[in-house]
Amino acid sequence: MNDSPTRAPLPADLFDRPDCAGGLVPFRVGDKWTGVVLRCLEEGPRRFSELRVPLHWITPKVLTETLRAMERDGFLTRTAYDENPPRVEYELTALGRSLIDPLNATCAWSRAHLSEVTEAREQYTAR
Q1: End-to-end distance of the chain based on CA atoms, in angstroms?
Q2: How far apart are CA 79 and CA 114, in angstroms?
Q3: Where is the HTH hxlR-type domain positioned along the sequence (predicted)?
């Protein structure tokens, strides 16, 4: 016997709204590395080699891909200086900077609920 309430099925066009148009929503915000790059650029422009120091666990290829995607989405600018040796700096745009407060809120939520998430993971693994 099924005691669950009867619910309407999810519509096939659930995400076909103008404000949720296919691949246009910038899910990059929630990807694996954007948050840490945002944090690194929070205080001002940085060179690739500077970013590599705290982000040493990210391969150069993946960091480059992340920076390019963030530039494409308008979160940062890449400025190449005509110098010898060449110098390139990455800097948050106003749009990228607007993500700092949500990032801070997410970090605060994570700190407040870390023990609950850890416990849930342990219970899941024990099953």
Answers
A1: 25
A2: 38
A3: 20-118
